[in-house]
Design goal:
With about 120 residues, the protein is mainly alpha-helical. The protein has two domains: about 30 residues; about 80 residues, no CATH class.
Length: about 120
């Protein structure tokens, strides 16, 4: 019976925690939606996804036999630098180019204004 009560209490606590987090999430998003560093972290997510295996393979070829913790302390900053480089060198220029194309296309398709007739 004591085991059941302990398990039930643990499930109840977790359920309350998940419910509270779920209810708070829209407010957290609303509070943080205009933070520049939050957007920057979001911009890094795809480059991190794309480059993490390559960076890990390069870090694992370091000449010294490193403990996993030491390797992680080298790997994470290198991964973030590579990802930031991808954003700055590829993503940002491509996004600017795309936005210019959209603006030019929108200007060409804009109807003639009434005042011009």
């Amino acid at each position: 019976m004591l085991v059941f009560i302990c398990i039930y209490n643990q499930i109840t606590r977790e359920t309350i925690l998940y419910a509270a987090f779920s209810l708070a999430l829209p407010f957290i998003f609303n509070a943080s939606k205009n933070w520049k560093w939050d957007r920057w972290i979001g911009e890094l997510s795809y480059p991190v996804y794309i480059s993490h295996i390559s960076v890990l393979m390069v870090c694992r070829t370091l000449p010294a036999k490193l403990e996993p913790t030491t390797l992680a302390w080298i790997y994470l900053p290198v991964l973030l630098l590579v990802s930031a480089g991808l954003v700055l060198a590829i993503d940002t220029p491509v996004e600017r180019w795309r936005q210019r194309r959209v603006r030019r296309s929108a200007l060409r398709e804009m109807p003639v204004s009434i005042g011009a007739l």
